[in-house]
Amino acid sequence: MSRTAAPPLPSPLSTPVAARRAADSARRRTSASLILRSVLEHGPVARSTVARLTGLSPASVTEYCARFAELGLIREAAAPRQSNGVGRPHVPVDLDDGRFVVGGVHVAVPYTTVAVLDLRGRVVAERRLPHGGRTDPGQVLARAADGLNALLAEVPGRRAALGVGVAAGGWVDRDSGTIVEHPLLGWLDVPVRDVIGARTGLPVHVDGHARALVDAERLFGRARGSRSVLHLFVGNVVDAAFATHDEVHHGHRSQAGAIAHLPLGAGTEPCDCGRVGCLQVELSERTLCRRAREAGVIDGVNPMHIVAAAADGDPVAVRLLVERARMVGRAAGLLLDVLNPDVVVVTEVGVVHREDCLAALRAEVGPERAASVSPTSFPDSVLAVAGGTVALDVLYRNPLGAAADLSESLT
Questions:
Q1: Each residue's pLDDT tens digit, 342-361
Q2: Which of 97, 211, 347, 366 would give a disulfide with 241, using CB separation of 3.0 to 4.6 Å?
């Protein structure tokens, strides 16, 4: 008589109780996120209005708001609003600007930016730390952490830091907190989260700067409420990020958005990969500055000097910036054809500072799609915002979890 094998034991996560607990936890996290983001977007706002905006019950909204107030994330506004003259006045709630901040670190090729941001994504303080040609990751990250610690100590009111966000170009793995590869810096498998965390004593979150800026636009910028957003970052590094229905696409090990070697039509610059006309070599600030030096416009490597020369009426500087914006428009057009987003945000020095560059970019995209393309919402602080938003996105996605992380770091 044959014996029938015993069925495998169910894993703990496959049991109805575990599944129900996981679903409840996800539901609570989503509800908390919806409520805090509604206060961010609409505050000062009555709890009843938050309930209507989120579709949650008034009792749930009241419960979460009470918890947020205990944690110091929101506060009641000073003046209550009358409820059509009938019943008790509605006391609106708003973000509490006076309790918490986040730290931000952005690692660029020539310098690192350290910053402090409030809960609305506004830059409270910012400092630039030039690398001076020394890009050893241990030294760069140690200086960044120490510089951020000093900046946090100077914040008025001694507000507590909820955490630190770190953003950079290249291949950044969010889950491991690692810069896997940054060719222009020569970095491989750099444990950014561990290094910054050890020197600041704070929770640290790491992501690519294009993805961080998509989150910044969704939370604090022009793309708030859009169903899909594409961000194209054109600096020394050229990369992109795409979000649909409030979720940024990361891909396996956060490799999504690597567009450096996409071909650009009519490109002439040779690339290290052996081809000609890759986006990064054609559009990078290194290429722009080299062309400006060859034309006698500048004698250094700062693209803002080209913008200044153009503002002073130098026709060659104007031509270089407009031509580059036109090529950026071609790159944006390629990505629009593939992804068809509602909104395209471009961070590029000419487009940010000059109307003729923005017009050239939009003309290349085409009149039927031009209105969907805009420059970054943060022209004066884009790198600081990128770093800080990595931490702020964590807060707004999981407010109670982020507050728990802070409690652990303070004990």
A1: 999 999 999 999 999 999 99
A2: 211
Beta carbons within 8 Å of 372's beta carbon, 6+ residues apart: 336, 341, 342, 343, 344
Residue 194 sits at the vertex; the CA angle it makes with 399 and 203, to the nearest 5 degrees, is: 20
Q: Give DSSP secondary structure letters for 302-349.
A: -HHHHHHHHHTT-HHHHHHHHHHHHHHHHHHHHHHHHH--SEEEEEEH
Residues 247-271 have pLDDT tens digits of 999 999 898 999 999 998 878 999 9
Per residue, the 3-state secondary structure of 91-151, as one string, reads: CCEEECCCCEEEEEEEECCCEEEEEEECCCCCEEEEEEEECCCCCCHHHHHHHHHHHHHHH
Are 65 and 72 in contact by the 8 Å Cβ rule? The answer is no
d(CA 106, CA 233): 14
Element at 189 (helix H, strand E):
strand 187-190
**Number of CB atoms found within 10 A of residue 248's CB:** 23
The C-alpha angle 328, 387, 226, rounded to 5 degrees, equals: 60
Rounded to 10 deg, the angle between the 285-294 and 303-311 helix axes is 50
Say which amino acid occupies 300.
G
The domains found in the chain, sorted by start residue, are: 18-83+90-95 (1.10.10.10), 100-213+383-410 (3.30.420.40), 225-376 (3.30.420.40)
Q: Is beta strand 123-130 parallel, antiparallel or unpaired with respect to 111-117?
A: antiparallel
